[in-house]
Amino acid sequence: MIFENTRAFAQQLDSQDSLNKYRDEFHFPKVNDKEVIYFTGNSLGLQPKRAKAYVDEIMNDWANLAVEGHFYAEKPWWDYQERFAKPLSKIVGAKPLEVTVMNTLTVNLHLLMVSFYRPTKNRFKIICEEKAFPSDQYMFQSQVNFHGLKPEEVIVEVKRREGKHNIRTEDVISKIKEVGDELALVLIGGVNYYTGQVFDMKTITAAGHEVGAYVGWDLAHAAGNIKLELHDWNVDFAAWCSYKYMNSGPGNASGCFVHEKHHDNQELPRFAGWWGHNKERRFKMEAVFDPIQGADGWQISNLPVLSLAPYLASVEMFDEIGMDALIEKRDRITAYLEFILHEIDKEVTSSFEIITPSNPSERACQLSVFLHGEGRSLFDYLMKNGVITDWREPNVIRLAPVPLYCSFEDMYSFGQILKRGILEK
């Protein structure tokens, strides 16, 4: 499609967009009495309007039923998490038995590493990407220390080539082969939080398995954003947060995936708890742990249903729409934003460098833009003029045009505000 940098053209794209109606399903903050242009769904998604009804339902059940709400609420609390299995499995490309919700992201990654990072004298190294999200880096370091090993001898980072912003798949594969028999675990962010690069998870997973390592993925920026086929890719495990692209609310519950090939492995250790015990026998208070079949068997505590309620509201919205429709709009609106940036770049003296891959198969719903010749003052101008975006040192703004609630007209309007911010400085 040939794009145009005009409001009329952007409005035309919106009129043709089958998902445009979902914009009205969300609450937008306001700046200067106008709804903002919201580009930070990669940090915290907007609140779905239907979320309140889901929370109110639990509050009412708590008021009217108290403890009996566990069994007699309209959505009984004791198995509330089971409502996520089918819709979440479609979002991440899994079987319903392979997914669950519990805890928060880094907690779940720690728990999954109990099962899937089992260092031995000869096989003990972990491969991750350079500039992984800090929480992942701290997790790796503390896990390695817990096992009495030294992080500098265990953690192997795949680095970017000199002068490049993104990591090449062949370099990941090369590093896996180089570490070889010493490799215990590959654990990488499926979408890099800083650049927005999407990794070739299928190829990297296969390469890790070829040398005998487990392969897991941190899908914080991937779940609800890209096409995932975790089961078919033979991924061992994965976890993701729900408050970014799935709009569940700040710090909300995490999702987990454990491939079915591991479900019956009695030698695979895990940290156990009451809620992971055989559901049919849970209230018999038995002394010996008998895990639920499937990913639910990795649960520890009963679930915080007040937190799960807005997540369920959003997941059911995803189920209505389907990932294919979301991805189709994601690709078009991201391409239009890219076009707008290049058009504005021609009209001003500054130079923008988009460090996110230009290949649509290597990016998702984020463009990270290096603002050469500009500084923090431009970011501040955008924020004061109703563009909610994200700043990353040294000089990058991250723009996430989330297809559920961003419009093509938003992209055009952003371009005009950006231009004014540069010309008026």
From TrEMBL:
Pathway: Cofactor biosynthesis; NAD(+) biosynthesis; quinolinate from L-kynurenine: step 2/3; Amino-acid degradation; L-kynurenine degradation; L-alanine and anthranilate from L-kynurenine: step 1/1. GO terms for molecular function: kynureninase activity; pyridoxal phosphate binding. Pyridoxal 5'-phosphate binds at residues 105-106, 133-136, 218, 221, 243, 274, 302. PANTHER family: KYNURENINASE. It comes from Flavobacterium sufflavum. The modification N6-(pyridoxal phosphate)lysine is found at residue 244. GO terms for biological process: anthranilate metabolic process; L-kynurenine catabolic process; L-tryptophan catabolic process to kynurenine; NAD+ biosynthetic process; quinolinate biosynthetic process. This is Kynureninase. Keywords: Hydrolase, Pyridine nucleotide biosynthesis, Pyridoxal phosphate. Gene3D superfamilies: Aspartate Aminotransferase, domain 1, Type I PLP-dependent aspartate aminotransferase-like (Major domain). It comes from the Bacteria. Catalyzes the cleavage of L-kynurenine (L-Kyn) and L-3-hydroxykynurenine (L-3OHKyn) into anthranilic acid (AA) and 3-hydroxyanthranilic acid (3-OHAA), respectively.
